[in-house]
Design a protein that fits this description.
With about 240 residues, this protein is α+β, with helices and mostly antiparallel strands. The protein has 1 helix and 10 strands. The strands form 2 sheets. Strands 3, 4, 5, 6, 7, 8, 9 and 10 form an 8-stranded antiparallel sheet that branches. A two-stranded antiparallel ribbon has the order 1-2. The longest helix is centred in the N-terminal third of the chain and has 54 residues.
Length: about 240
């Protein structure tokens, strides 16, 4: 009788092969998961950095693009009277600018009102309320009278119909707005920053100080924004050509 040799694998060898494939698959999945988590963390950090840079760009463009206009503000007589629209304190700033958060430098001039409001979960947030400027009549809803030092932003009336609100920064430990008086070229002395601006002329600069409530490790910090105002036009003076 002739015996034929039979070739194959044993059950033990098959179990070892399956175990090796499973270990390799698990290692590949762990490596892919680590890569995805690293990518998501990097993306969040880059998005946070872009947002901070965008906030600084928006604030700088809006404040430096100020248009000195007269608004219709409430008066003791109850009838709105013309008054310089620019003004603010430590938590409020109102102005007319040629730069919009949504449209950039295109379109109508914008009425912008910054408000420092309480944030959900603690801290404060910086909100920009915008509405197209179409003349002094369009400022009535924002120019409720002279801004006092102790007037909080939360005490202001709600934005008029048609206004858009943008949260520029959220979950901040603090946000403070200050103003630099124009330089006196006759005495050449430095003047301090003040937290209330209700004068008839424009300040020489505006500073917004912000700090995050919980800084993101490895990300850009929320830095102070200091914007010089180079507009020297007097809103009380009528400029016209004489030929």
């Amino acid at each position: 009788m002739t015996l034929r040799s039979q070739r194959g694998v044993t059950l033990l060898e098959l179990l070892i092969a399956v175990s090796l494939v499973a270990l390799l698959s698990t290692g590949m999945l762990l490596a892919m998961r680590t890569s995805v988590l690293t990518y998501e963390k990097t993306s969040r950090r880059l998005e946070s950095n872009r947002k901070i840079v965008g906030i600084e760009h928006t604030l700088t463009s809006q404040i430096s693009g100020i248009i000195p206009v007269m608004g219709l503000c409430s008066s003791p007589s109850g009838v709105p009277a013309p008054a310089p629209f620019f003004g603010g304190n430590e938590t409020i700033l109102r102005l007319v600018t040629n730069f919009s958060t949504a449209e950039g430098a295109r379109g109508y001039p914008q009425i912008v009102q910054y408000r420092v409001l309480p944030a959900i979960g603690g801290g404060v947030r910086l909100v920009a309320i915008e509405q197209p400027y179409t003349g002094p009549q369009s400022t009535i809803g924002y120019c409720t009278g002279p801004i006092a030092q102790e007037l909080p932003a939360a005490a202001l009336p709600p934005p008029p119909a048609g206004a858009k609100a943008f949260t520029l920064a959220d979950h901040l430990a603090y946000c403070r707005i200050s103003y630099h008086a124009p330089y006196d070229i006759n005495i050449f002395l430095e003047v301090p920053w003040v937290t209330l601006w209700n004068r008839l002329v424009l300040p020489a600069g505006v500073k917004i100080e912000m700090r995050p409530l919980a800084p993101v490790a490895g990300g850009l910090p929320q830095l102070d924004v200091t914007v010089p105002i180079r507009v020297t036009r007097d809103p009380l003076q009528s400029y016209e050509d004489h030929f």
